[in-house]
Write a structure and sequence with these properties.
The protein is an all-alpha fold and 106 residues long. 60% of the residues lie in helices and 0% in strands. It has five helices and no strands. The longest helix has 37 residues, at 65-101.
Length: 106
């Protein structure tokens, strides 16, 4: 109840023009600077500030998706070719070794 009865302080233009707040050399600019604090649209938002502070964009996000897929497909094809080649070579080696070790099965 006591909180509801208290009045919130209000700022009016006569208080802003008080000599305590204004610089005698440029009263208009001081009033503008005081009003700028309360201008929500004129202030930078947190998302812009965080984006500016986060630094440069990672290289991963600067390369086109099509180029990534081309390199990924090439990598896959080279690995597949190497796997098939190794399997063929290993079968040939195993046949030769088994023929020399166990001539009856060859």
């Amino acid at each position: 109840m006591a909180m509801a009865e208290q009045e919130k302080p209000q700022v009016n233009m006569s208080q802003l023009s008080d000599s305590r707040f204004l610089d005698s050399s440029s009263p208009a600019s001081s009033t503008e600077s005081l009003l700028a604090e309360f201008d929500l649209e004129g202030q930078k938002n947190d998302a812009d500030a965080e984006a500016a502070e986060s630094g440069p964009i990672a290289v991963e996000y600067t390369v086109a998706a099509r180029m990534k897929l081309i390199y990924l497909a090439g990598y896959f094809m080279l690995n597949l070719a190497l796997t098939i080649y190794n399997k063929a070579l290993l079968q040939k080696v195993l046949r030769t070794v088994s023929a020399h070790c166990c001539p009856q099965t060859g």
